[in-house]
């Protein structure tokens, strides 16, 4: 599921189509590798109106015949305006300790949820473990100006088959573009509330719970609406019509749709594409969708795209034990400490962790007790959030010493770029810590409720997996994960 954007390629001028959210892609016409210039703000897109205003009277007549509105005699004025919507997508992790009697896992079915999303839905249900984490990929749209054309609440599925254009305020100077009245902070709150609703979560049922929205992206879509101001028996009525298919949306009393909503937006918004090249040698870097890390095949340098700058990274990997079929998956490697904010207790070493983890003395025997706690999290916005979490839980639960070392070069075909930025991976630490500890007794639940996870160091490393059919085999711990499960998410 994806929105597609059509933006002019700066190298050849063709309309280079690409999925929304990607940072880099190849122009299908001239093969230039392009990057969307990140100016720190969220991106805005527009779906240009397809219905000419002259078609509105016919749609009004049709709505009257269908009984959707009545008593209208004449269309007096027709305007096309653009209503803004927030669109957000990411991975949801709901962690909960199932301590109370009669409580059960959240229901994961939702009639409004397209099957493509449900496919990724599953709960971790290790039989020995009552601490659960439910994970899913999720997306949602909602009005960014709910006061305007109120009945149009969401874009639904239909917008996803349309091609979006970058919103350029200069190009749309003459258009009636409504202001955004729900700012990003408010949008995040709305999204989280909708996520709880979507996952059918009643947090009161659990003695501990946390909901995390990770790897999330927010952007604005302007959607066209035709407003036909009509005269009728009881005064004026404004009929709202879908600017793409001319379908009836709603009839609202009055005629002052513009006055009621205040000024139309004229803030500057630009979208630009630039060449994506290795800062060291100038060769094109490989485009990689949501990737933020790029490997130059020509000079073997590794780059992290960070707020519009390329930062050189060391190539740290574990030595692969097989010559062929190795694939390098990126992980954030954290050295960390857990703290109980209520009691002040700290857990910094494997020995201390063993006391916390369910069966820790057994699982962590043989690991030097004085080792610092190290967590490895897949640096991917994976298509299957559950698979990524399971893998992280197993690797973190093992606390095995892993000698990551600088490498000369990656065998190119086997390199996978990272797509999960550090601050997003940090949010994930808490979920993984909960999942690793896996206990639900009262004392531990109290600990979860006042737990802070603090990372002392963080670095990107590449972990070799052996490719076997549809599976990836962890060469160090022997954990299997499906290739599809941790493939990059195309949404
Ligand atoms: Zn081009
Ligand atoms: Zn280079």
Layout of helices and strands:
Elements: E1 4-8, E2 15-19, E3 24-26, E4 33-36, E5 44-46, H1 56-65, E6 72-97, H2 115-118, E7 122-123, E8 131-143, E9 163-166, E10 176-177, H3 184-198, E11 208-232, E12 235-242, E13 248-253, H4 257-261, E14 273-275, E15 293-295, E16 302-306, E17 309-313, E18 316-317, E19 326-340, E20 346-347, H5 350-356, H6 360-363, E21 374-378, H7 385-398, E22 405-406, H8 422-437, H9 442-449, E23 451-468, E24 471-474, E25 480-482
Parallel strand pairs: 1-9, 5-11, 6-10
Antiparallel strand pairs: 1-2, 3-4, 4-14, 5-9, 6-8, 6-11, 7-8, 11-12, 12-13, 15-16, 16-17, 18-22, 19-20, 19-21, 19-23, 23-24, 24-25
Helix pairs in contact: 7-8
Bound molecules: zinc ion (2 copies).
Q: What is the mean predicted local confidence, pLDDT?
A: 83
Number of helices: 9
Q: Name the poorly predicted regions.
A: 100-129
| Large-scale geometry | globular
Distance between the termini: 5 Å
Task: Tell me the count of domains.
Answer: 2
Tell me how many strands there are.
25
Q: Whole-number radius of gyration?
A: 26 Å
Give the percentage of residues in beta strands.
35-45%
Find the structural class using helix and strand composition.
alpha+beta
Note the main sheet: 11 strands, mixed
Q: Ions, cofactors, ligands: which are bound? A: zinc ion
Task: Give the helix proportion (percent range).
Answer: 10-25%
């Amino acid at each position: 599921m994806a929105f597609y954007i059509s933006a002019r390629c700066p190298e050849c001028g063709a309309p280079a189509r690409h999925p929304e959210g990607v940072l880099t892609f190849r122009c299908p016409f001239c093969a230039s590798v392009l990057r969307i210039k990140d100016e720190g703000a969220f991106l805005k897109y527009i779906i240009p109106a397809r219905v000419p205003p002259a078609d509105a009277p016919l749609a009004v007549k049709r709505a009257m015949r269908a009984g959707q509105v009545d008593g209208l005699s004449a269309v007096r004025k027709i305007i096309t305006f653009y209503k803004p919507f927030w669109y957000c997508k990411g991975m949801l992790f709901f962690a909960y300790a199932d301590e109370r009697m009669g409580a059960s896992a959240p229901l994961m079915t939702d009639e409004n949820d397209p099957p493509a999303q449900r496919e990724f839905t599953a709960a971790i249900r290790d039989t020995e473990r009552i601490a659960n984490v439910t994970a899913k990929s999720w997306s949602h749209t909602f009005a960014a100006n709910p006061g305007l054309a109120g009945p149009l609440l969401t874009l639904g599925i239909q917008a996803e088959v349309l091609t979006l254009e970058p919103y350029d305020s200069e190009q749309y100077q003459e258009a009636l573009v409504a202001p955004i009245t729900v700012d990003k902070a408010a949008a995040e709150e709305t999204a989280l509330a909708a996520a709880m609703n979507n996952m059918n979560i009643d947090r009161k049922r659990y003695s501990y719970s946390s909901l995390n929205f990770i790897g999330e992206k927010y952007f604005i879509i302007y959607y066209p609406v035709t407003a036909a101001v009509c005269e009728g028996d009881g005064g004026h009525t404004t009929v709202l019509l879908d600017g793409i298919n001319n379908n009836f949306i709603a009839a609202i009393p009055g005629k002052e749709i513009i006055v009621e909503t205040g000024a139309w937006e004229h803030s500057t918004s630009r979208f630009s594409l630039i060449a994506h090249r290795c800062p060291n040698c100038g060769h094109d870097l490989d485009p990689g969708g949501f990737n933020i890390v790029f490997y130059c095949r020509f000079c073997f340098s590794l780059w992290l795209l960070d707020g519009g700058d390329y930062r050189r990274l060391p190539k740290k990997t574990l030595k692969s034990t097989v010559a062929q079929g190795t694939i390098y998956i990126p992980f954030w490697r954290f050295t960390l400490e857990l703290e109980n904010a209520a009691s002040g207790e700290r857990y910094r070493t494997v020995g201390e962790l063993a006391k916390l983890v369910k069966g820790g003395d057994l699982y962590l025997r043989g690991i030097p007790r004085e080792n610092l706690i190290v967590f490895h999290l897949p640096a991917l916005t994976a298509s299957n959030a559950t698979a990524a979490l399971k893998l992280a839980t197993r690797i973190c639960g093992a606390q095995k010493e892993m000698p990551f070392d600088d490498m000369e070069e990656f065998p190119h075909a086997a390199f996978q770029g990272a797509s999960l930025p550090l601050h997003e991976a940090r949010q994930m630490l808490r979920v993984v810590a909960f999942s690793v500890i896996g206990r639900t007794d009262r004392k531990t639940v109290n600990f979860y409720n006042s737990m802070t996870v603090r990372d002392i160091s963080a670095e990107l490393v590449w972990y070799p997996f052996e490719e076997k059919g549809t599976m990836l085999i962890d060469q160090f711990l022997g954990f299997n994960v499906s290739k599809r499960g941790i493939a990059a998410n195309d949404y």
